[in-house]
Amino acid sequence: MQKFKHIMRELQGAILVGSVFQIILGYSGLMSLLLRLINPVVVAPTIAAVGLAFFSYGFPHAGSCVEISMPLIVLLLLCTLYMRKISLFGNHIFLIYAVPLSVGIIWVYAFFLTAGGAYNFKGCSSSIPSSNILLDSCRRHAEIMRRCRTDVSNAWRSAAWVRAPYPLQWGPPTFHFKTAIIMVIVSVVASVDSLSSYHAASLLVNLSPPTRGVVSRGIGLEGICTFIAGLWGTGTGSTTLTENIHTLDTTKMASRRALQLGGALLVIFSVFGKIGALLASIPVALAASVLCFTWALIVALGLSTLRYTEAVSSRNMIIVGFTLFISLSIPAYFQQYEPSSNLILPGYLVPYAAASSGPVRTASDGLNYAVNALLSINVVVALVVAIILDNTVPGSKQERGVYIWSDPKSLELDPASLEPYRLPKKISCWFRWAKCVGF
């Protein structure tokens, strides 16, 4: 428990540093300057790299239990592709609720398989860590069963019915250069991801593209939300989820009140520990197979931003293709180095920090850690390479998509076009100081 708290406190400090940087990036107007370097040719491979980064996690984990992962993948494809036009009560149920409906059906199926003894450990102890099991056959079998069963987690027995999280619940945050610099760079990448989501959402709801001021305001607000998440010690920040653009497209629901109600329900549900414990019973193989679908959507959504450009241009094809390949190849090179034994990062960031003893070696250990870790992150490599190539290789504004992606001055001359972007009066009064971002 002490090691867990130590990790959370350092992660908490890094998130706070990254959030402050993002707040400054947004409300100072610096995001407006950064927008001059970020165009659709940059955003397309960067967002696609977000999804491609998890290709080594998806089916390798889902394939450990094909009897539940394959039916889920097939069911998702049936609902979203072959049954998407079937309408019930005036709604395309199978398209709108494809993920929760498919997961629910296969989840129940996996529960009955577990209860029926299909995933018994067969004499191999389930309470011993895999690394301590002597027999190779037992080690492999126990690991596979842990990915298939619905009762592996003991969260239901240990989770409290009601638990209200509070600020600094893991103790005061600790700050270290190596983790802080990683979170600062990640906050920039998250801002680029959000930029793409803002523009894609505006097209889906028939709005004019957001101006630089509106984009900067959104980035600043994401920084505030990340700061709150850091104080509460959630272990993650806050950003615009690219997958929600697909949800917006399929449900045709863009109401602010619907989103506010959904957010309120999520806050309420977070207080009840048993709800999280129930979700923890989803088998790992089942969760991995869902990622095979959802992260693939992110790749497609990222590449879809090329519609703002001349996609058939040889310039753009070379930049996007080279960026995608190198964003997978360079991190693969860095990740082949074994992480140091005293690694201070949570488990889901280990692939990115595997280069803590990597090839970049200077006199500063902290700088070595930061550079090696950053070059192990696919999306960081994609962003840097795409920005350099797109802004140094000659190309017309139409070819690069600048004329539609950047902030057209005509939008600012028409206040009515920006009316849907304005904050409610009760909230906007708190941001009157941020004149540089369009309030």
From TrEMBL:
Keywords: Membrane, Transmembrane, Transmembrane helix. This is Nucleobase-ascorbate transporter 11. The chain crosses the membrane at residues 12-30, 37-55, 61-82, 94-112, 258-279, 285-304, 316-334, 369-389. Pfam families: Xan_ur_permease (PF00860). Its main location: membrane. The keyword Transferase does not apply. Signal peptide: none annotated. It is a multi-pass membrane protein. One of its GO terms (molecular function) is transmembrane transporter activity. The keyword Transmembrane helix applies. It is found in: Membrane.
